[in-house]
Amino acid sequence: MMELDVIDRQLIVLTQNGLPLTDQPYHQLAEQLAISADEVMQRFRSMQDQGVIRRIAAVPNHYKLGYGFNGMTVWDVEDAVVDQLGELVAALPFVSHCYQRPRHLPDWPYNLFAMIHAKTAADADTQILRVGEVLEGHVRSHQVLYSSRILKKTGLRIAS
Amino acid sequence: MDELDKRIINQLQQGFPICEQPYAQVAASLGIPVAELLQRLQSLLDSGVLSRFGPLFHAEQMGGALTLAALQVPESRFEEVSELVNAFPEVAHNYARDHSLNMWFVVATERPEQVAAVLSAIEAKTGLKVLNMPKIREYYVGLQLEA
Predict the structure, then answer these.
(1) Residues B111 and B84 in one domain
(2) Is there a contact between A154 and B52 if contact means CB atoms under 8 Å apart?
(3) Nearest CA of chain B to the CA of A90: how many Å?
(4) A111, B30, B55, B95: which sits with the fewest CB atoms below 10 Å from its CB?
(5) Contacts across the A-B interface (CB distance below 8 Å)
(6) ipTM for the whole complex
């Protein structure tokens, strides 16, 4: 875990809506903070090395790229094997996130979550079947919760 | 969205350089002028094909925390509750899902103890019970989708 100082925080506040779309974005941030561009770049590199920044990147809207079938697949598997199974599911190329999460019994028995994304219902079904094959013999029950709408997608926000 | 837009999206999902003229570097690797890259990026953001472009921050690595939570919202109250939940700046993502638990959102906070406070505040504002499902283990996170 990285201790952020006041300038790191200012850089986060200035870029949490996005990086400036200008030829020299790091220079522009440097001007706004009255520090050198080298320092801005050094701080970004350091935050990236420490994992505070996963990466600097574009985040697409799944639907607009044609991925209309975004399913949260949830599985009830034995706790004793969930880590081993989670690693196997995570290795499937179409799984974008995979987590172990707590059950909320009796209504919510699922402890393994894997997100899938497909352009057609048939592709989604194939992917879900593949996850099921990987978990073969360990699944007590499962469900797929498709997203029907993005209500918000801003990412982390910190107060300035 | 044409082939060039797709190449831009695919390349920029992977990462972006930290250097003097990063857009020029990306434009050169795509074989286009930097002005065209900037213009296309702007229109992909304006049209919502891209939700955002910039640093992707990791709450936990900053000393913060995040969780996934779900609500069972009566259909008649869905829009109202959606506005109440989205109004919290700590709600980073929120999705409608086809299930009796029909609203699923991610809360990301700068300090770990804020997560519980935000979930309590959401319960108080909406009058609905929040199911908190913080991750126990993360097996994989990779967000890239081919355009």
Answers:
(1) yes
(2) yes
(3) 5
(4) B30
(5) 240
(6) 0.87
C-alpha dihedral (B21, B144, A113, B111), degrees to nearest 10: 10
User: Would B145 be classed as within a structural domain?
Assistant: no
| In chain B, % of residues over pLDDT 90 | 87
**Is B114 an interface residue toward A (CB < 8 Å)?**
no
CATH number of the domain within which B81 lies = 3.30.70.3460
Whether residues B128 and B66 share a domain: the answer is yes
Q: Do A155 and B57 touch (CB under 8 A)?
A: yes
Residue B52 lies in a domain: no
A50 and B60 within 8 Å at the Cβ level: the answer is no
Enumerate the domain spans of chain A.
6-49, 63-146
Would residue B54 count as lying in a domain? no
B55 touches chain A (CB under 8 A): yes
B92 belongs to a structural domain: yes
Which chain B residues in 19-48 lie under 8 Å from chain A, judged by CB atoms? 19-24, 34, 38, 41-42, 44-45, 47-48
Going by C-alpha positions, the residue among A4, A97, A153 that lies closest to residue B111 is A4
CATH number for the region A63-146 comes to 3.30.70.920
Other CB atoms within 10 A of residue A80 CB: 8
Q: Per residue in B18-71, pLDDT tens? A: 999 999 999 999 999 999 999 999 999 999 999 999 999 988 888 889 999 999
Whether residue A82 contacts residue A110, with contact meaning beta carbons closer than 8 Å, is answered with no
Q: At what angle do helices A25-33 and B22-30 cross, to 10 degrees?
A: 170
Domain that holds residue B123: 59-132
| A59-92 per-position pLDDT tens digit | 999 899 999 999 999 999 999 999 999 999 999 9
Chain B residue with minimal CA distance to A67? B145
C-alpha closest to that of A89 among A109, A113, A121: A113
Q: Is A23 on the interface with B (CB under 8 A)?
A: yes
